[in-house]
Amino acid sequence: MITDNARRKGERAADTTTPKYIGKTELPEKEGASPADTVPGWTIMRPLRKKGNKASGMGTKGASNANGNGASFDSQSGDDLKMLKTNDTGDGYGGVGEVETLHEVRSEDELLEGEDERGTRHNGQHAVHNLQSNGALPERTVSGGVRYKVYKRRWFGLVQLILLNIIVSWDWLSFSANSTTTAQYYNVSETAVNWLSTGFLFAFVAISPLTIYILNRGPKLSIMTAAVLILLGNWIRYGATQAGPNGNYGALMFGQILCGFSQPFVLAAPTRYSDLWFTSRGRVAATAVMSLANPFGGALAQLIDPLWASDGKPQDIPNMVLYIAIIASVAAIPAFFIPSHPPTPSSASGEVPKQQIWASIRSLLGSPEFYMIMIPFVIYVGLFNSISSLINQILAPYGVSETDAGIAGAILIVVGLVAAAITSPIIDKTKAQLLTIKICVPVLALCYLAYTFVPSTRELVGSYVVLAVMGAASFSLVPVVLEYLIEITHPISPEVTSTICWTGGQLTGGIFILISDALRAGGESDGTADDGTKRPPGNMYRALVFQAVIAMVVFPLPLALGLFGRHKEVRMRRVEADEDASQRNDLEG
Hints:
The protein is mainly alpha-helical and about 600 residues long. It has two domains: about 5-135, no CATH class; about 155-585, Up-down Bundle (Growth Hormone, Chain: A), CATH 1.20.1250.20. The protein is about 60% helix and about 5% strand. The chain is built from 20 helices and eight strands. The chain has helices at about 5-15, 115-135, 155-170, 180-185, 190-215, 220-240, 250-265, 270-275, 285-310, 315-330, 350, 355-365, 370-395, 400-430, 435-450, 460-490, 495-520, 540-555, 555-560, 575-589, and strands at about 40, 40-45, 50, 60, 75, 80-85, 100, 110. The chain has a two-stranded antiparallel sheet with strand order 1-2. The chain has a two-stranded antiparallel ribbon with strand order 3-8. A hairpin with a 2-residue loop joins strand 1 and strand 2 (about 40-45). Helix 13 (about 370-395) packs antiparallel against helix 14 and helix 15 packs antiparallel against helix 16. The longest helix is centred in the last third of the chain and has 30 residues, at about 460-490. The protein is globular and about 75 Å long. The two termini are about 30 Å apart.
């Protein structure tokens, strides 16, 4: 800790008439003197010796947080210290600035250049290396600039988030593609089956405030929470299938809600994880891979579940739920062994202290740009959730089988994943997030409008094509929007914006499913009453019209971003912070 006495001595030294300081940025005026050497990240003063005396080596003792890092300094000259600003904000973790040693050079002193100094530098470097290995310091260049580093271990956490997002989405859509078979096994209506999806989405909304709090403490705690809920929920669901000849629908719903509670902890985590472990050159791609694993799990559910429990075989439902529970267990257990944070920061923006939760929320509420991005995101995620949950019930009245409906749902997701895999690295390099948003949103709105009329044509190819384009536009948007919101709201903590957006999307998804179910035409909806017309009994044409209207209403909002003199409000602040830090390091080098 820097004492008042140390500060006063530093101030007195600064007021000297002809000061000659040896420090990080000031050089002695003595002829032939060279700049002070530094160990990575901190200033180590060259030892001084009175003429005729032998200098003793400088010890390194103590550490003080500065800009998120520790400091080491000479224990023998600890009185000659002063506080300096370390960054543009002037504060670091704990509010402690960088420590610089002051030493007045007198005429009888001389700079040493020999074994003593080399030993001093070695000892100082060894001490700082120990702090760096414990996560206390970022790596720094010899000139004092920060050298940020990414670690291979980041892939462990990334893969874990991928696995958990896959299984949690699989849990969500476990009964959607084979809703008729599920209704037969549990002896309930298809509306009750829809509530398994709707309840899952509403559970997300209910737990989201806790999600923000836990994610604010770090992604590992959030990931472990999700793993526990996934394990409990899946095995409770399986137990519900064994409770009698028709299972226990109430216990099934309870297990489904537990799985729903787990979803926000992994779905909102990718932006927080990529901010912590990745640089600006890879964050969009990393967020895309982790976030889009969620709908990939839905695609697996659409494709595989009808094979495990096909039409006319409701007795296969228990085995289907058991297989999913086993896969969930394998995916969840490694979550308890991932690293909590990198040993040193990956980037300048990643180590900038983030705003507190309530301060972040207040800032977002006053930002028009936040609403112009968040509202379309919430609506389109809700529409995607609705159409994914109801795809079988949309197509079944026209005589489409559960297997073919599952293929349609899988195309929606798989094509989207391929498109996102192509676009995300390109956007990472070009930083064209805003342009991507302004292109994809109108395309997405037109897809919902077109799909209103496609099922009545009874041509599966038409459904496949429109759903493929819809998936490509949707999945390309998801990581771009999430990362762009973090860019323009930096230094607001990433988990706040992502959790708000995902929570809104799940809430609207649940509401849209309920509205669509209410807009269903009367009659049997499983295709047995198909009369060959454009509007057979049980059709969902009015629900599709509702979705198209909502999609068309909101698409102009993101097109207005950066207009009306507000171009400064859509700057990439986090990228700029990283670039500024890089330029400062280059200048110091």
